[in-house]
Amino acid sequence: MKRLSRLSMSLVLCVLEMLCISSAAYATTYVYASNYASNTVTAYPINTTTSTATYTISGLNGPTGVAVDSNYVYVANSGSTTVTIYPIHTTTSTATYTISGLTEPYGVAVDSNYVYVADAGGTTVKAYPIDTTTSTATYTISGLSYPAGVAVDSSYVYVSDWIAATVTEYPIHTTTSTATYTISGLTEPYGVAVDSNYVYVADAGGTTVKAYPIDTTTSTATYTISGLSYPAGVAVDSSYVYVSDWIAATVTEYPIHTTTSTATYTISGLTSPTNVAVNSSYVYVSDIGTDTVKAYPIDTTTSTATYTISSLNTPYGVALLATTATTTSVPLMTDVGRFIFIFFAGLGGTYAIIRAKGRVNV
User: Fold this and answer.
1) Does pLDDT of 177 surpass 50?
2) Which of 193, 88, 190 lies closest to 131, judged by CA?
3) What residues form DSSP beta bridges with 244?
4) Does 228 have pLDDT greater than 90?
5) DSSP label at 206?
């Protein structure tokens, strides 16, 4: 396993649909894997026992970020500096429309009105109308250093700035570049997650995961999980905080709002776990060291996978698409691997929102 370069982190992708948010019930159909090396996104039946893809989007160029909603699959192509949009469950590799004129599009996020793009090279976050036929942004957040990721909920746009070592929050649909608040004092903030009480930051350089009060006006953490090696990703559900540790090659679980750094359980035997995602039944891990996506029972006490999707090609990310939502959930942002995600029901669908965190050398 090769250590991540701290000066050249690229996007590792993952979109996750969390079935346990606020007791909302969802039906899922596919697992999506982003294959950076083969320039494809492949879809597999949920809980599959086969490694044969149902369909494949090809002809991409360095696919780093991906997001899904009830109508489209959104792909950030770092190689062609575009974001391309495809019909959900497409059997074609022809994009419905393309956003061009970007510099280094790493993170992509969607809500019911806009597509948000973290253009790291352009030091901006741009918002475009959903189903846009133009590459002209409706509004732009500027004054950033290296905005590798973006996420949204019903109130705010969250931006992870890798070079500034901050996480900043802006009012949703803002016309200003003035942040509502900023979390500073970090080292290498990669993973970020939020629930109704806290903002969780995986500070890889500081080898910790820190929790801050939501809408915080302070950079003092309420509690800290320490004793990690390189915690690049963090995710939360109603019971646990999940941490992917690249250097230790593990995924560890801690009680939600924990005041201890003792893990409830640890998934070991991995090689290079880039992303972690959860639903009501399984913990999904994207392991680029073995070119696989592995599923483990939730609250597992074993490191034996229930099933494995193999024959992938540098699978930086894993995503689950939700097709229905029976109740409206409280917005929840989570991080799986090297991305921020927000998942929420209502607003005409169930949305998964992605934020990226840098370049990975393997």
Assistant:
1) yes
2) 88
3) 233, 251
4) yes
5) G
Distance CA 106, CA 316 (A): 13
pLDDT of 243 over the 50 cut:
yes
Does residue 111 sit in helix, strand or coil? Answer: coil
Rg (CA), the chain: 18
> What is the average pLDDT score of the chain?
75
pLDDT for 320: 62
Among residues 315, 269, 266, the alpha carbon closest in space to that of 293 is found at 315
Handedness of CA 333, 334, 339, 341 (dihedral sign): negative
Calculate mean pLDDT across residues 226-235.
87
- Token pair of 142, please? 């500027």
303-312: Cβ within 8 A, 24+ apart: 303/266, 303/267, 303/268, 303/269, 306/282, 307/47, 307/48, 307/49, 308/51, 309/31, 309/33, 309/44, 309/48, 309/51, 310/51, 311/51, 312/33, 312/35, 312/42
- Two tokens at 276? 């972690």
How many CA atoms, within 13 angstroms, populate the side-chain half-sphere of residue 128? Answer: 26
What single-letter amino acid sits at 35? N
Q: How far apart are CA 75 and CA 73, in angstroms?
A: 7
Query: Which CATH code for domain 21-355?
Result: 2.130.10.10
Tally Cβ neighbours within 10 Å of residue 234.
28
Question: Sign of the CA dihedral 216, 217, 220, 226?
Answer: positive
Among candidate residues 69, 86, 145, the one with its CA nearest the CA of residue 342: 69
* Domain spans in the chain, listed from the N-terminal domain onward: 21-355
Burial 120-132 (b: 16+ CB within 10 A, else e): bebbbbbbbebeb
Give φ, ψ of 180 to 5 degrees: -70, -45
Sign of the Cα torsion 19, 253, 32, 158 reads positive
